[in-house]
């Protein structure tokens, strides 16, 4: 494994629950080129705290302002020369989401019936880990 890193990416995503359903979104223009459903996610701005990023993405992308947003886990991954640190949050929906300009569609799906997603099984695995986290 190459120990050199030419780019660091800090990101946050949020598993938004409504009873036994989870919110997935389809971006209008996916930043990674992968079409399909995914968790609401955003890169952290320079100096931004991960929870502030999660709250910002919920408000700007979906019109949500939940009372609590909890960190469930932090995931470190390497893809080529890019090292990513992703903060996985969870919260309960405080209202029905309203898709912002970057979101083509936002929809709740029952956890046991999640659709095919942009990154294969990755989103499904994150949802299960986050939902079952203490």
UniProtKB/TrEMBL annotation:
It comes from the Bacteria. Signal peptide: none annotated. InterPro entries: NUDIX_hydrolase-like_dom_sf, NUDIX_hydrolase_dom. Its cofactor is Mg(2+). Residues 7-134 form the Nudix hydrolase domain. It holds the Pfam family NUDIX. Keywords: Hydrolase. GO terms for molecular function: hydrolase activity. This is NUDIX domain-containing protein. It comes from Candidatus Segetimicrobium genomatis.
């Amino acid at each position: 494994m190459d120990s050199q890193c030419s780019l660091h990416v800090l990101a946050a995503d949020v598993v938004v629950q409504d009873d036994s359903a989870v919110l997935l979104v389809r971006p209008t223009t996916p930043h990674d080129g992968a079409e399909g459903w995914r968790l609401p996610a955003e890169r952290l701005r320079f100096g931004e705290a991960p929870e502030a990023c999660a709250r910002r993405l919920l408000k700007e992308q979906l019109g949500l302002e939940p009372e609590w947003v909890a960190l469930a886990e932090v995931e470190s991954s390497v893809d080529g020369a890019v090292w990513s640190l992703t903060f996985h949050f969870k919260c309960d929906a405080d209202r029905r989401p309203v898709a912002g300009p970057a979101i083509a569609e936002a929809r709740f799906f029952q956890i046991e019936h999640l659709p095919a997603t942009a990154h294969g099984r990755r989103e499904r695995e994150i949802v299960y880990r986050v939902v079952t986290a203490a």
